[in-house]
Amino acid sequence: MILRDYSVEVHSMEEKFNPASYPYDFLIVGFPKYYEYPVLYALDYLEHNLKKRGHVIPTLAYCTQAGHSLTDFSGLERLLRKKNHRLITSKSFPYANNLLIFSMFGLTTPEVLKENKWILKS
Ligand SMILES: Cc1cc2nc3c(=O)[nH]c(=O)nc-3n(C[C@H](O)[C@H](O)[C@H](O)COP(=O)(O)O)c2cc1C
């Protein structure tokens, strides 16, 4: 699918944006990984704020994380399906471990951070 002449809006969950009252044709959702899964706050938010749509909404999801193991998006996929959104692709980014929450991962090197910022922007 090639999208042309589209506009993109960026909103955060913290701003209490409610997508239910908004028209859109495509959705991208991103969140951090906590304890091996997408953070519960994000799943709760989507459960309560996504409206079931009349037509299928292709959806992309990404997860930032400290480690390298792939994140399990299956719970999110089921949640989205109930709302007539289809998870068409997902990506796990070993993004940042700047607070050294898990010492076994080590601090993220400046080179990797630079590369990750580029990937997220493009
Ligand atoms: C409580 C907590 C649990 C976390 N659990 C994981 C985990 O299980 N696996 C992992 O790779 N990263 C884990 N992380 C690291 C976060 O995913 C990482 O800090 C986050 O993606 C960075 O994005 P942020 O700056 O938006 O928080 C955890 C972080 C916190 C604070």
Can you put this structure into words, describing what you see?
The chain has 122 residues and is α/β, with parallel strands linked by helices. It has a single domain, classed as 3-Layer(aba) Sandwich (Rossmann fold), CATH 3.40.50. The protein is 25% helix and 24% strand. It is built from three helices and four strands, in the order ββαβαβα. Strands 2-1-3-4 form a four-stranded mixed β-sheet. Helix 2 (74-82) links the parallel strand 3 (57-65) and strand 4. The longest helix has 12 residues, at 110-121. The chain starts with 26 loop residues before the first strand and ends with a helix. The relative contact order is 0.16.
Task: Provide the CATH architecture.
Answer: 3-Layer(aba) Sandwich
Give a short account of the largest sheet.
4 strands, mixed
Helix content: 25-40%
Query: What's the order of the H and E elements?
Result: EEHEHEH
Compute the number of helices.
3
Low-confidence stretches: none
Number of structural domains: 1
Distance between the termini: 18 Å
- pLDDT averaged residue by residue: 88
Which ions, cofactors or small ligands are bound in this entry? flavin mononucleotide
Query: Beta-sheet strand percentage?
Result: 15-25%
Strand order of the largest sheet: 2-1-3-4
* Number of beta strands: 4
Structural class: alpha/beta
CATH C-level class: Alpha Beta
